[in-house]
Amino acid sequence: MTDSRDRRRLNVVEERPFPAYVVWELTLRCDHACTHCGSRAGVARDDELATGEALAVVDQLAALGTREVVLIGGEAYLHEGFLEIVRALRARGIAPALTTGGRGITEDLAGELVRAGLAYASVSVDGLEPTHDRMRHLRGSWRGAMTALDRLRAAGLPTASNINLNRLNHKDLEPLYDELRARGIASWQVQLTAPLGRAADRPELLLQPWDLLEVVPRVAALKQRARADGITLTPGNNLGYFGPEEQKLRSVAASDRDHWQGCQAGRFVMGIESDGAVKGCPSLQTAAYVGGNLRERPLDAIWHHAPELAFARRRTIDDLWGFCRTCPFARTCMAGCSFTAHSVFGRPGNNPYCHFRARSFAKQGLRERLVPAAAAPGAPFDHGTFDVVIEPLDAPDPELAAERLVQITRPPRA
């Protein structure tokens, strides 16, 4: 996931779309089996790209002007050609980075990453030790992640961290920040757990839209603390949207007046799956958004001609529906994060995870509650669907009697 801050960091000023920022899943093989994993990682995909094929992809990325590639998995270091791919990216003038759970980061591997030219590594930490280990489904995972941060920093590599925020771990935010600051991280990304992959199987894990009334101001306050500590806190693309803290959330410097500028999938962002499938964002649903496979078509042709990658380039307000169609920020926001909206309703264009939207309902004494309607089928990057119940803001019980409900809405057919 990326947003306007990433575009600025990469000096993206061109109007013509190009894949400046790429997230590349090298393998779906993983040494965790996290309960919230959108890709349901654990076992490698059938027919993943071999090292030679991956190196050819590096050349194609360079030809398209890619500035940064974040290697993910599963666990990227479990791919046999991982270090060779890092070196190849660096040799072609592309900044290689890594997002990892950290379990396999040994002192030797940390040193090899530095020598290979890795730009930075972000270790995923999803709460304090009890919460993190529960979400990662592995006792000792939190200690492994913290040890990884220490080893990477000791090797001289810039470090970052990221968190998927949900009902299980959001109370850990402030104390977790203190733990990460003590480990010397340079940046921290906070995003919402969306009902994607394994998280779609656990609806009780998800924040409800009204939870943003509490969570977003807390993240904004943490960003102020982080700025004073020399740490860059960035909200993920599915957190925020035009509440009172929007400028504070999106801006890099205190004097900036930045804001959400719409989904960048297929505009300046691209995702590659480990079997060569290409989509406009790494978290987009595979079934709906893959524009082609690198074994069958050159990357240049997929990027420029696949309609599945071009949806955000061509989106207009007429593609929005529900609350988002009537929102005063619609032309700028374009319904926020596409994969999050799709993971809730089975199509983009209407996104209940919005701070402005939650505040708008709260002013009327109402709130939206997501209710599972259809289960996810069980594939990587899949989703179920939800209904939205509109109910009184002060409802004490999330499972209200039918007579207290104001309205139930379902997405219209496309």
The radius of gyration is 20 Å
Spatial sequence of strands, sheet with the most strands: 7-6-5-4-3-2-1-8-9-10
Q: Describe the largest sheet.
A: 10 strands, mixed
Q: Based on Cα principal axes, name the global outline.
A: globular
Alpha-carbon distance between the two ends: 26 Å
Structural class: alpha/beta
The unreliable regions are 1-13, 399-414
Please tell me the overall pLDDT. Answer: 91
Tally of alpha and pi helices: 16
Q: Report the order of strands and helices.
A: HEHEHEHEHHEHEHEHEEHEHHHHHHEEE
Number of strands: 13
Share of helix, binned: 25-40%
Query: Which percent band covers the strand fraction?
Result: 15-25%
Feature tags:
single chain, 16 helices, alpha/beta, 32% helix, 414 residues, disordered N terminus, three-stranded antiparallel sheet, globular
Explain what you see.
The chain is built from 16 helices and 13 strands. By secondary structure, it is of the alpha/beta class. The chain has a ten-stranded mixed beta sheet with strand order 7-6-5-4-3-2-1-8-9-10. A three-stranded antiparallel beta sheet has the order 11-12-13, with helices on one face. Helix 2 links the parallel strand 1 (21-25) and strand 2 (68-72). The radius of gyration is 20 Å and the shape is globular. Mean pLDDT is 91; it is low at 1-13 and 399-414.
